[in-house]
Amino acid sequence: MGKYSNRWTRAAIPALLLHFSIGTVYCWSIFSQEIADYIGFSKSAVEWAFSFAIFFLGMSAAFLGNVVERDIHKSSLIATIAFTLGMVGTGFFIWYGGKVFAETGTGSVPALIGIYLSYGFVMGVGLGTGYLSPVKTLMLWFEDKKGLATGLAVAGFGGAKAIASPIMQKILGENQNGEIYKMFWILAVVYFIMMFVGHLLLAKPAGWHEPDKSEKKPGIWETIKTRPVSNYIGIWLMFYINITCGLAIISQEKMIVKCIGLAASVGIISTVSAIFNAGGRLGFSAWADYMKDRNTIYKMIFIISIAFTALVIVTGAIKNGEGNAFLIILVLALIFMVNAGYGGGFSNVPTLLSDHYGMGSISAIHGITLSAWAFAGLTGNQMATYIVNHFGTPEDHGGVMVNPTGYQMVLYVTGVLYIVALLLSLFLVKKSDKAAK
């Protein structure tokens, strides 16, 4: 009984404390317009802070994976300090930018760069190390249910937006003077406490022996080469494509919803999407525990995404959906299933990698694989924005300017990419050692 109680207090609860905190990075869209207005820059200029945060999340995970491998207490402390320091810095540069804008009527470039550095780089380092730190520990404590354990934590990362959004909106609403920077300072204190408690609780099982520095341990590349290299390339590419497609569609989600006549329900649909995102992280990974080959989950995710994308394209549901209940349901089903598949892709990566390459260097290999997230963070949103800006013509739908042709074109591109990902999953990613037993 002790082992089973310990795995909740030493792995699951600290993982949730860490991931519920850092997952609020996805709340950026809630206040990005307010920040832009407060410091005197366009929303598109401010949006780069989020793209940088995701990029440095992936790159810090890739470069600091070995630190996580050696010492989860050091890595979780780095995560706690970097994430909350990044929030404090973001608040400071918003305050400074607002002050300059109020005095001169011109946006301050140093303030914008400061936000990029604070929210993008500093918080990004906290995101990457915080995301990685509990994953191996969870798989060690929950050897019989690795997918359920990692899915629980990663669902915390995905579901943080649903929990934090109304809290942030309440804080913003209470700031009558629009002093948005205060929200970052308040939340920095809250998240520091949560993450520091998680850092103190997090611990690997007593029976797990981590090789010390004097023992020779295979490097990441040597471990990857225990399987065909094409196998790892396939995993990296299908992970990258799933994130790119997910971000491309999710970034246009609000405008697509407005396009089909549901402008008044954007907030509710956004919350439901976040629930599907979190549910996909937990559900798909827990389901994979009962499969011989976890790669089957990716095949299912891609097939479902291709099917719903094709249905929306063929019916022209985004263009013709307003007033048509069936087409509206079809578009919402696509949005919800893409969110679920996007989340499921994240939660299944560490367990799929452990099935192929073992637990010895899983944090380092998982970290390198998260570099796919870094590049997708730069390409997904930007690709969709480029397509919408260059295809179709904006139309007035009840006072809201939308571009149904542009959104449909995004689906053509993501549909093709999903097909490529399915082919990679079918032909490059081999059955794991777990499946062979």
Walk me through the structure.
With 437 residues, the chain is mainly alpha-helical. It folds into two domains: 1-202, Growth Hormone, Chain: A, CATH 1.20.1250; 218-430, MFS general substrate transporter like domains (Growth Hormone, Chain: A, Up-down Bundle), CATH 1.20.1250. The protein is built from 18 helices and two strands. The protein has a two-stranded antiparallel ribbon. A hairpin with a 2-residue loop joins strand 1 (395-397) and strand 2. It is globular, with a radius of gyration of 22 Å. The model has no long low-confidence stretch (mean pLDDT 89).
What's the short story on this structure?
The chain is mainly alpha-helical and about 425 residues long. Helix content is about 80%, strand content about 0%.
